[in-house]
Structure formats: C-alpha cells, structure tokens
Predict the 3D structure of the following.
Amino acid sequence: MKFEWISSDHELIDVLAEIQREDRYALDTEFHREKTYFPQLALIQLKWGKQIALVDPLAVTLSLFGDLFRSSALCVVHAAQQDLEVLNYACGTAPNKIFDTQVAAGFIGMSSPSLSTLVQNELKVTLTKGDRLTDWLRRPLTSNQCSYAATDVEYLLSLHDILEKKLEALGRTDWVIDACEELRLKPAGPSSPEDAWLKIKEVRTLKGSARGVAQSLGHWREVRAMSANIPPRRVLSDMALLGIAQAQPQNSEELFRARGVEQRQLGAEMTREVLAAVAQGVGQDVKFPVADQEDVDKDLRPAVGLITAWVGELARTHQIDATLLGTRLDILQFLRRLPNARLAQGWRSEIVGKDIDGVLAGNMGISFDSKGGLRLVPVTNPN
C-alpha cells in the first residue's frame, strides 16, 4: 500500500492544501494514554482521492490542521469519539463536519461494528489484524505499523459511498447527519475534579463522613494527576483512597496503617497533602447524586422498564442500533421533561417520543403480540 510519510511543516502544508481542494477526506489517529493523564497523539492518518498520508505529530506543528478542520470538507471517520477528544487536545480543534461510518452502520441494522467487520460486510475485504500492544510513539515506525495504520483510512471513503446510498434508500440520511453532529458536540476530556470520586467502583459503599473524605481525596488526586500528567491511580490507588476515606487518619502513622496505602509511594509532601484533604473532607456533608430513576415521578417509575423494553423492540423492528434510538437514560430524561431530552427532538420524537407521550396520556398501551414481542395498541376508553 502506497502512502506518504509527513514529518515536516512544509510537507504538511502541501498535503493540507491538496485536501482542502476536495469535498471529503478520511481520517484516523493512533494515540496512547496508558502512562499519561492526557492522551498522547502518536499518528494521524489521512486519505483524499486515492492518496494516503501518515502524519508524524511529533515532528509537525499540529495547529496547521486548523484551517482544514474548520473548512466545509466532510471528514469521514470510524468510531471517532476518542479521535475527536485527542485532536481537540493536541491540535486545539477537531473537524467541524464528520460522517462516522460506525454511527451510519447503526442505521442500517448493524450494532456498533468494528472497522474490520464493516469492511468485510460491505466490501468483502478482510483486514489484517494489528498488534493491539504496538508502540505508536516509537520512531521509526516499522513498515508493518505504517501499513496497518494506512489500512485504517484506506476503505473509509468507499464505505461512505456505500452507506450513503443505503441511507438515502431508507430515508435516513438526515438521521445520520444529526447523530454525527451529536457525536461531534458530545463533551469529551476530563470530568470535573469534584466528581472524580464517583468514578471509583466501590465508592457507593461508603457512608457518612467517609463520603466527604472520598470526594476531597478524589478531587486532590485528580488535580495532582492532571498537573503531573499521569494516570490518577499512579498518584493513589482506588483501594488506598477508599481505605483512607474509611479510616480518616489524623496523622501519618494512622495514614500508613490504612488499607492499600504504601508509605514509599507517598513521601513527605504527598503525606501532608493527603492528610489535609482528609481534614477538609471530614466536615463535608456529601450525598450521592440522585439516581435518574429516583428523580422520576414515583407514579411513572413502573413504566420505565416496560418503555425501555418497547424501545428495544422498536429498534429491532426499524433495524436501528438500540443505543442510537434511545437508551434507558434517554427515556428517563424524557420522562423528567428535561429540555435537552433526545427523545423529544427530531427523528427520535417522531419514532419514539410522541408514542411515549401517548402512553403517558393513557391514549396508547403496550401489550404483547402473538410472538411474544411488544407493540403499541390504542386505548379506546382511557378514562
């Protein structure tokens, strides 16, 4: 497979100028985030027309991508959520017009297919499996690494052509445009340090003042990890954070006895910071966020499970990935009448939202059909 290796600004400027004369281009990235807090962009793959370029982000000025990303050219990608996050962090911006082939496939009866699955199904081409543990930051990259990376964009424009025709035949082109825009605008990147403690698996087992300590420690750990650009668990393990929250030590001796704490890992400075975070958290009255279902009117709670099952049935009937049509969270937000509820807007409102309103109003009911599936039926005497 032919490709051009781009490792200087003047080479990149020439490539970007060529792409901006096109209506569309394909893009993918390779990155690492195992040893850092923020993702490390290691490679950018581009295809336009029949040309492929591999851009070395370690050797070029990434802000040069700004004009292309802000242009009207359509960027064809696959499963782009993390790519968009990485590009926003590394380049300061990301493509403002995307077509995600994984999202599009969800509207023609496939459920979040991998690129290799989609290429096999639509183009009858079997992609070579790459090494998931490969080091994309090494230089020079091997020929196998480069070929594998180029393959990630080789077929995206062909997939775009095929999927676009199928979507047009189904009348779902606008649905995909809306879904891709939702993906593009979806918040990405680090969450608020104040909420970092909620990502810990067993944190909901904590009671009383231990919650305040866990929140305070989680905030401290997240800020320190961001500052040092290392994963939060390398600052303090989840087990140690929970152990400290439960023990609530007042001095270093008590701290080092807490479950999961290693004295050699902390050091004098971090020991002082941890004890300060504990002292700050002990006096806080912290409650867990109200679960979405608990925030729904109690008379509607029994309906949540049934409506969720019906939406899943509806997704199968329409051959749409159920996560694209409506998740349980979407249903809860709709029932809570939140202004940004997805089921109250656009194509989802037509397929799902209006019928849920009919059920809630008593004009429609959900029943089983002869095959054990769910269906909507009119209620003749709602009163």
Remarks:
- The chain has a mean pLDDT of 93.
- The chain has 17 helices and eight strands.
- The domain at 293-378 is CATH 1.10.150.80 (DNA polymerase; domain 1).
